[in-house]
Amino acid sequence: MVMKDDDPRLLPPLSMLRCFEAAAREGSFSRAAARLGLTQSGVSRQIAHLEDWLGQALFERHGRRVALNRTGEAYLGEVSAALGLVRTATRRLIAPHDHGVTLATLPGFGMRWLAPRLPALSAIHPDLMVSMIARTDLFDFAAEDFDAAIHVGPPDWPAGASGEPLVHERLFGEVMVPVIAPALRARLGIVSARDLLEAPLLALAAQPEAWSRWFAADGLELAAGPPRQRFSQFLMLAQAAVAGAGAALLPRFLVETELAAGLLEVPVERPLEGTRAYYLVHPPRRTRDGDFARFRTWLLAEARK
Predict the structure, then answer these.
(1) How far is CA 222 from CA 158, 209, 210, 212, 248, in A?
(2) 28 pairs with which residues across the strands?
(3) Quick one: pLDDT at residue 88?
């Protein structure tokens, strides 16, 4: 059966699509309902109507939890991209002079590197509004209302449903230093890299080999393998080090406050060049936005410092 592009059956009601997108992202009809300000039964009915409309199931039901099937996953990618474009177009039409920049940022980067520098940005561009939202996941820009994101790692943010390759602009490489609580350092008598071999070592879950590389620079080897205590985020790792749980390798910019307050010390002044870098990631079309262009220019200049 051939359907024309203007066939009304090709455009399900927006209410159905919104419920479908929310349920797919939340993995739960009840959480989707809370997000949309609806009842759980209301969301369930809208999705059932959508599945009837399409003549295909989109979810697998597992008690109170739901998960997209393959059909649903494929449909979500294209529907979310379309809804994202509608949201962006509507926002720019309703508030063309109050857009500013919405940035998804890693929690540690946002709190410890970017936020302290925002007063300098305001001094240059007092009318520029920057909204920072903490995110650690790789999302689809076409489906989310973000202008850009801060990413750490290789330049590998996926293009998403739109298929449009993203721009990765390098800010700076990751350089880490060993830190330890003063009381623990005194108790263990740590003055050299070899002394640190006797300390409990803390690591980022994504970089369990970092300590091995740091010791290898001094010709030392970890006999017991990678650290047993691992953390998913640098800020959690820093707090564990402050509490005296062990020594940690951390980017210096993330612990400047603790170092200045005497909560942490650098027992051996030898940095480790990380294997990752921080990037500003954004769709190419964002560079045509005046507010984002001003923010981007400032951010890249700050990173070069």
Answers:
(1) 36, 10, 11, 6, 15
(2) 65
(3) 66
Q: Are 230 and 221 in contact (CB under 8 A)?
A: no
Q: Count other Cβ atoms within 10 Å, centred on residue 203.
A: 22
**Helices and strands (H, E) in the chain, number of each type:** 12, 10
| pLDDT tens-digit map of 264-283 | 999 999 999 888 999 999 99
With a CB cutoff of 8 Å and minimum separation 6, the contacts of 244 are 181, 183, 184
Question: Which helix H or strand E contains 176, and what residues bound it?
Answer: strand 167-179
Domains of the chain with bracketed CATH: 8-93 (1.10.10.10), 99-172+277-304 (3.40.190.10), 174-274 (3.40.190.10)
Using the predicted structure, report yes or no on whether residue 238 has a pLDDT greater than 80.
yes
Q: What pLDDT sits at residue 141?
A: 87
Q: Rounded CA gap, 28 and 44, in Å? A: 10
Give the whole-angstrom CA distance, residue 92 versus residue 190.
57
Residue type, 2: V
pLDDT tens by residue, 87-107: 767 766 766 555 689 999 998
Non-local (6+) Cβ contacts of 120 within 8 A are: 302
Q: How far apart are CA 88 and CA 200, in angstroms?
A: 49
The answer on pLDDT for 183 being more than 90 is yes
- For residues 125 and 147, give the distance between their C-alpha atoms in angstroms, rounded to a whole number: 18
Residue 90: CB atoms within 10 Å:
10
Strands 167-179 and 272-282: what pairing? antiparallel
Separation CA 112–CA 108 (nearest Å): 6
Mean confidence (pLDDT) of the chain: 88
**pTM for the complete prediction?**
0.66
